[in-house]
Amino acid sequence: MATVQEKLITPIAGGASEGPRNKVTVVGIGQVGMACAISILLRELPDELALVDVVEDRLKGEMMDLQHGSLFLKTPKIVADTDYTVTAGSRIVIVTAGVRQQEGESRLNLVQRNVNIFKHIIPQIVTHSPNCILVVVSNPVDIMTYVTWKLSGLPKHRVIGSGCNLDSARFRYLMAEKLSVHPTSFHGWILGEHGDSSVPVWSGANVAGVNLQTLNPDIGTDQDKEGWKETHKMVVDSAYEVIKLKGYTNWAIGMSVADLTESLTKNLSRIHPVSTMVKGMYGINEDVYLSLPCVLNNSGVSSVINMTLNAEEVAKLKKSADTLWGIQKDLKDL
Amino acid sequence: MVLIFSRSGRAKVHGLKSTPLNEYVKHILASPYLYRSFTKLTEMATVKEQLIEHVMKDEASVPRSKVTVVGVGAVGMACAISILTKELTDELALVDVIEDKLKGEMMDLQHGGLFLRTPKIVADKDYSCTANSKLVVVTAGARQQEGESRLNLVQRNVNIFKFIIPNIVKYSPNCIILVVSNPVDILTYVAWKLSGFPRNRVIGSGCNLDSARFRYLMGEKLNLHPSSCHGWVIGEHGDSSVPVWSGVNVAGVSLKNLNPDMGTDKDKENWKEVHKQVVESAYEVIKLKGYTSWAIGMSVADLVETILKNLRKVHPVSTMVQGMHGVKDEVFLSVPCVLSSSGLSDVVKMTLKSDEEEQLRKSADTLWGIQKELKL
Questions:
Q1: How far is CA B134 from the centre of its chain?
Q2: What is the pLDDT of residue B17?
Q3: Best exposed site among A144, A297, A321, B170 by fewest CB in 10 Å?
Q4: Are A252 and B271 within 8 A, CB to CB?
Q5: Can you say how many angstroms the Cα of residue B308 is from the centroid of all Cα atoms in its chain?
Q6: Is the dihedral of CA A214, A219, A222, A225 positive or negative?
Q7: In degrees rounded to 5, what are phi and psi of residue A194?
Q8: Residue A280, Cβ neighbours under 10 Å: how many?
């Protein structure tokens, strides 16, 4: 007796179907990983999504929960396994695995623990997707992106850290609230280290091309009567604040990663402040990753914008680079 | 004459002889208005004032498509993120009782403002922040523990609803209430009773998710996208939901005609297993990850879209079915309903087999058995 499927359907194209063209893998299905996954799925970016983690039950549960929503999505294949073969053929691999900051803990404190986890993860990713672009989210992101670059052996334009993409998004949100406009209409860049020593480039802050520093030359300094510097401080404190209130952050970082993924998969050549290898720029001589405005397309970081920074801003970048290198040089077996 | 301005802005005059005219002059100079005009001439305008000229008369703006989500647990937040990413609303409000978590969730969503098209996200324990909502999604309440049936949650959740529903109604008397909390059919009845709303404005998410899961599993079996696989699961959202096999089709081709044993125990292809998996889905996912969130969140956003955009799509959602399919009591069960900006305006009359109708009546009896004991 023929099955329902056989009676219903006459096959036309013979042979196995082609592999996925826009496969995205998310490594780590904690709050951040799943927020990235749901944002990426809802934006209809991949034709296949793979999830990897070490906790088998939870991994299978998350996969099923996403699959059950397939009617509402345009991603026909959602897979998950603790075995990395499930990630094969990925174009983008987003790494969120690792330990996260506890209340009051700095990102830099997480380093060695996360390096050990990455030694297990990164080589397996590269084995199964040698042509992928790696997007590192785990903290401290600038150091972990360096670690990923070292462990993967991939060219530097294919290893990106989510970096200050979120800081800049928070900055634009907070500044826009003060000016009563939408965040997309306020332009401002936060660069350098994703963390306590990020650098707000006040000289570039503008609305409709009108430079705010020209309107208020004290902007961002301690002399500023309007206290705009406070906005950057709020950005730096954001993560700690949300962690204190709900235990972790996930939605904002998930949305910001989906935004990066969109530029990469759709070959948009949009500029994002993400963490890239900055050796040779701004007097930095070591292999460090810091956020600069990068043009992202389907080859990864295709180019970097040469920011005009003042001496103080360059000095801050150099100082971050030194702090990061101070930690990086002590890392074992990379 | 010397004018000394204090911190408060008032001026004290020194060196002026005391005459009636001079007293009057002192009085004028002491006015705070003088200080303000004086400083305006010498003070720098703020960045905002220099940048932006306000050209209209300020009027309070009322949101046009505001959605409130009650409950910021995993389900509530999955609904919120799906609704935001699908750009369905111009204002989102979150309510819950745990203040810290509520504020943290609100901030986390606000920080993604650059990537969204929802300019206002608010949250408060106080329901005044929910005012003027078009649609209120209720996810609050206790959830199933591993192995626990949805019906077990009833009395706890009724008590929670006694607080929530009147507050919603107070601030959004014209809204549509979409109940998600379990057991959804009973709680939709409870929300309807407590709100005093007409029945088109109280809807239960019901079997929208069950049908979505059914269509996904059907798609996997036939190697097709779920949206091309049509099948309706109706009745109770839970263990006794009813798969209407006679309606299952692809491109209008009835699968039951191709396989008359479909849905029975005799079926060699065991299609009945597909429905069984739908019923067990929630328990399975809860066992594996502790709760379900993403699928229900996406299915709720699907309903929100149809309602806010006035699409008149047909969804299997929970509504008052007294008088249909032989149901005699005031129970809520899922049947295919037309949803629009007025809420639930029409019901599609399914042609059911006698055993399917019998199953619906049995669900209705089970639900009424529980409902009649409730203290509302």
A1: 10
A2: 80
A3: B170
A4: no
A5: 11
A6: positive
A7: -80, 95
A8: 8
Cα–Cα dist A144/A280, whole Å: 20
CA distances from B9 to B16, B31, B35, B38 (A): 20, 8, 6, 10
Structure tokens at A26: 């998310």
pLDDT of the residue at A112:
83
Does the beta-carbon distance from B112 to A42 stay under 8 Å?
no
Residues composing chain B: 376
A254 close to A36: Cβ distance less than 8 angstroms: yes
List the catalytic residues of B: 237
Active-site annotation holds for A194:
yes
d(CA A295, CA A272): 7
Segment holding B141, helix H or strand E: none
Radius of gyration for chain A, computed over Cα atoms and rounded to the nearest angstrom: 21
Distance from the first to the final alpha carbon of chain A: 60
Check CB contact under 8 Å for A72 and B107: no
Phi–psi pair at A133, nearest 5 degrees: -110, 130
Secondary structure element (H or E) that encloses residue A215, with its range:
helix A212-215
Q: Which among B43, B42, B46, B35 is positioned nearest to B8, based on CA atoms?
A: B35
Please report, as a single letter, which amino acid is at residue A108: L
CB contacts < 8 A (A, B) = 195
Chain B partners within 8 Å of A219 (Cβ): 47
* Beta strands at B176-179 and B202-204: parallel, antiparallel or unpaired: parallel
Q: Which two tokens stand for residue A202?
A: 């006040």
Q: What is the tens place of the pLDDT at every residue in B193-210?
A: 999 999 999 999 999 999
Among A187, A194, A232, A272, the one annotated catalytic: A194
CB contact under 8 A, A169 and B113: yes
Which regions of chain A are under pLDDT 50?
none
Structure tokens at A128: 């199964």
- Tokens 């798969």 found at: B243
CA distances from A99 to A117, A191, B254, B287, B341 (A): 9, 24, 52, 24, 45
Residue B77 has pLDDT above 90, yes or no: yes
Name the phi and psi angles at B54, rounded to 5.
-80, 120
Rounded to a whole number of angstroms, the distance from the CA of B283 to the nearest CA of chain A is: 10
Closest by Cβ to A215, choosing from B47, B103, B221: B47
Pairing mode, strands A159-161 and A133-136: parallel
Q: Which ipTM score applies to this complex?
A: 0.95
CB-nearest to A70 from B77, B221, B226 is: B226
**How many CA atoms does the CB half-sphere of A105 hold within 13 Å?**
15
Cβ pair A160, A292 in contact under 8 A: no
Chain A residues touching B119 at Cβ < 8 A? 182
Best residue of A10, A12, A42, A65 to probe chain B, by most B CBs closer than 10 Å: A65
- B302: nearest CA partner in chain A: A72
pLDDT at position B36 over 60? no
Distance CA B304, CA B298 (A): 10
The distance of B55 to chain A (nearest Cα, Å) reads: 14
How far apart (Å, rounded) are the C-alpha atoms in residues B338 and A263?
38
Backbone CA torsion sign across B268, B274, B280, B285: positive
A176–B48 C-beta distance less than 8 A: no
Q: The dihedral of CA B145, B151, B152, B157: what is its sign?
A: positive
Contact between chains at B284 and A64 (C-beta distance less than 8 A): yes
Q: What's the CA gap between B120 and A261, in Å, rounded?
A: 25
Asked if the Cβ–Cβ distance from A57 to B209 is below 8 Å, we say: no
pLDDT in tens, A137-181: 999 999 999 999 999 999 999 999 999 999 999 999 999 999 999
Q: How far apart are CA A130 and CA B362, in angstroms?
A: 57
Give the nearest partner residue to B292 out of A57, A65, A212, using CB atoms.
A65
Query: Least CA distance to A70: which residue of chain B?
Result: B216
